[in-house]
Every structure is written in C-alpha cells, then in structure tokens.
Amino acid sequence: MSRRMEKINKLLKQEISSLILKELDFKRDVIITVIKAETYSDLNQVKVGISILPFSKAEQVLRVLNSKNSDIQRLLNKKLRMKIVPKIKFKLDSSEEKISRVEQLLKK
C-alpha cells in the first residue's frame, strides 16, 4: 500500500470515528470502536471495520449506523478537502467476539 493511501485511511478512520462519537447518540452501555478504514484504490469506497461491545448489541448498532450512513457521509464530505470523498460502508469486525470465545474455552 502506498504512503498516500495509508494517510487517507488514517484520516478517514479518525474523522469517521469522531463523527460517530459526536453525531450519533448510543446508550452508555455500548462501546463502538473504529478498527480500520480500507479505501479502494480508485477512492470510490471505504470499508470501515467497527468493533462493538457488548457483541450482543452489534446487529442493532450496525443497523443504526447503516441507517445514519447518509448523514455521516454528508458531514464527512463537508469536513474533508478531497476531490473524491469515498462512500462509507460499515463492516462488523468480530475479532473481539472470537477472542472472548477462545478465552472462555481456555477457562473451562
């Protein structure tokens, strides 16, 4: 991956994370973390990997994120000075759930 793409991914990760924190109102018992942002080489789309704790509320939070996607996209378009701002696509990162499942198995 080129240095430019790394910078774009880092910028998008930071900005999307701050927009989720500021603009969306989730209950205090839900923690949302933006794990990664992977931009396609043509800058048309960015896959945003998110981690949600507790994992039992992941589907509900993902539905809210997808329903508010256009609002987040609009705010991101205003905030960034890029010729092409990639379209956001949220993807659930289930590695946290896998880690906790392995820990539970090891405890047994």
Task: Describe what this molecule looks like in 3D.
- With 108 residues, the chain is of the alpha+beta class.
- The chain has one domain (3-107): K homology (KH) domain (GMP Synthetase, Chain A, domain 3), CATH 3.30.300.20.
- It is 51% helix and 22% strand.
- It contains four helices and three strands; from the N terminus they run αββααβα.
- It has helices spanning 3-23, 58-67, 69-79, 95-107; strands at residues 31-39, 45-53, 87-92.
- It has a three-stranded mixed sheet with strand order 1-2-3, with helices on one face.
- A hairpin with a 5-residue loop joins strand 1 (31-39) and strand 2.
- Helix 1 (3-23) crosses helix 3.
- The longest helix has 21 residues, at 3-23.
- It is globular.
- The model has no long low-confidence stretch (mean pLDDT 88).
Concise overview:
The protein has four helices and three strands, in the order αββααβα.
